[in-house]
Write a structure and sequence with these properties.
The structure holds two protein chains of two kinds. Chain A is an all-beta fold. Chain A is built from no helices and eleven strands. Classes of the chains: A mainly beta, B mainly beta. The A-B interface holds A 4, 6, 32, 34, 42-44, 46, 49, 51, 91, 93, 95, 97, 99, 103-112, 114 and B 32, 34, 36, 41-46, 49, 51-52, 90, 94, 96, 99-103, 105-108.
């Protein structure tokens, strides 16, 4: 089945550092990728939708200058948390979808990145 | 806009017992329906989906779900659970009319299977 690889799985860094998270679709072309944030014991909150070759669409309340998304190819999207602070600590999950298979195709999720800002 | 309500935040059951995880949704348009499972510190894995056709859909790991349009429900069931089914389960919907397939998730149900 479709596989999405997310890297790194865990990051611990100092406040003020910028952190890049990669999301790759391994066996399909992901025309659309999604980035989610999950707080402890809560559901997933969609942060942004990215389409290959165009700017990401951010959800209301998500700072686009804080969370930079680049979907440079059909198999790779990156999320950069710029100048991270402790309140940015969270579990970040990406997902990818192959629109060429038609409507209703499910999103395939990466294993998530646990970000801890000290 | 859509919303998804998972009626139980936690469901404890004994091994080999049946289980039902409830999901209701609200939407002004037709939707696709999904159930995902999340194990600790991992992403989400698709259990099953309803796109069209038969309202009873079968998924992986012995799970099944039934779409009830009149009750706007999509409850997940398994006739006999295993310890390994302990995880968090998310119901989700996406709008049929948009091409991007943005998902709206429920709050999740933690299933704990006891020996």
């Amino acid at each position: 089945g479709a596989v999405v690889s997310q890297h790194p799985s865990r990051v611990i860094c100092k406040s003020g550092t910028s952190v890049k998270i990669e999301c790759r679709s391994l066996d399909f072309q992901a025309t659309t990728m999604f980035w989610y944030r999950q707080f402890p014991k809560q559901s997933l909150m969609l942060m942004a939708t990215s389409n290959e070759g165009s700017k990401a669409t951010y959800e209301q309340g998500v700072e686009k200058d804080k969370f930079l998304i680049n979907h440079a190819s059909l198999t790779l999207s990156t999320l950069t948390v710029t100048s991270a602070h402790p309140e940015d600590s969270s579990f970040y999950i990406c997902s990818a979808r192959d629109l060429s298979l038609g409507a209703g195709q499910p999103q395939h999720f990466g294993d998530g990145t646990r970000l801890s800002i000290l | 806009a859509q919303s998804v309500t998972q009626l139980d935040s936690q469901v404890p059951v004994f091994e080999e017992a049946p289980v039902e995880l409830r999901c209701n949704y609200s939407s002004s348009v037709s939707v696709y329906l999904f159930w995902y499972v999340q194990y600790p510190n991992q992403g989400l894995q698709l259990l099953l989906k309803y796109l069209s056709g038969s309202t009873l859909v079968k998924g992986i790991n012995g799970f099944e779900a039934e779409f009830n349009k009149s009750q706007t429900s999509f409850h997940l069931r398994k006739p006999s659970v295993h310890i390994s089914d302990t995880a968090e389960y998310f119901c989700a919907v996406s709008d049929r009319g948009t091409s991007y397939g943005k998902l709206t998730f429920g709050q999740g149900t933690i299933l704990t299977v006891h020996p």
